[in-house]
Amino acid sequence: MSLAPWLDACPVVAILRGIRPEEAETVGAALLAEGLTILEVPLNSPNPLDSIRRLHAAFGERALVGAGTVTSEDEVAAIARAGARLMVTPHCDPALVLAARARGMVACPGFFTPGEAFALLAAGADALKLFPAEAASPAVLRALLAVLPKGTAVLPVGGIGADNIPAWKAAGAAGFGVGSSLYKPGDTAATVSEKARALRRSLVAS
């Protein structure tokens, strides 16, 4: 499995931090209707495995459903059983990349330094999450891409929204992890749709 076709369709990972299982399907449907098909449920959300199961059951092959804030091999195994096909970590841990790939999942681990990036790529990471992006800049991303293997997909995460996507895209970002600019606890499906449309407009304009 590859992340590239999903990013080609829409380069946004919708980070649904805090989502509850009973709202996962309606929010997921709203995102898919706006063309956002990569859905991440962070494991520090309420009953995250249930939300992952529901999203996977509802949207199957139409969406790439995964888990974020994955920090242990036991969690990798648990999200795989729940139907996740994408694993995202907040940190550099090559062992988690190996565990995810062994289960057929796409691995997008977090990094912040060139050394971490190269270690994760050596372990087989499909893409890299630059986190926290607020502590970096598009100029930092441009410098990183100058030394990373050609074609490395880097997705800035943290503080990403419609206002700064164009600058990150110009620096070479292959995609973006977007949290509260897309969804925060309490948002209705209609609110999520509106936020998604704003993000899509920024992508088209950039």
Molecular structure report:
The chain is of the alpha/beta class and 206 residues long. It has a single domain (4-205), classed as Aldolase class I (TIM Barrel, Alpha-Beta Barrel), CATH 3.20.20.70. Helix content is 46%, strand content 15%. It is built from nine helices and nine strands. The protein has helices at 4-9, 21-33, 48-59, 73-82, 94-102, 114-123, 138-147, 165-171, 189-205; strands at residues 12-15, 38-42, 64-68, 86-88, 106-108, 110-111, 128-130, 154-156, 176-178. The chain has a six-stranded parallel beta sheet. The protein has a three-stranded parallel beta sheet with strand order 6-7-8, with helices on one face. Helix 7 (138-147) packs parallel to helix 8 (165-171). The mean pLDDT is 97.
What does the secondary structure layout of this molecule look like, with pairings?
Blueprint: H1 4-9, E1 12-15, H2 21-33, E2 38-42, H3 48-59, E3 64-68, H4 73-82, E4 86-88, H5 94-102, E5 106-108, E6 110-111, H6 114-123, E7 128-130, H7 138-147, E8 154-156, H8 165-171, E9 176-178, H9 189-205
Poorly predicted tracts of residues: none
The tally of strands reads 9
Mean pLDDT: 97
What is the CATH class? Alpha Beta
**Alpha carbon gyration radius:** 16 Å
- Derived structural class: alpha/beta
Number of helices: 9
Oligomer: single chain
Termini distance?
28 Å
CATH homology superfamily name: Aldolase class I
Gross morphology is: globular
Short structural description:
The protein is α/β, with parallel strands linked by helices and 206 residues long. It is 46% helix and 15% strand.
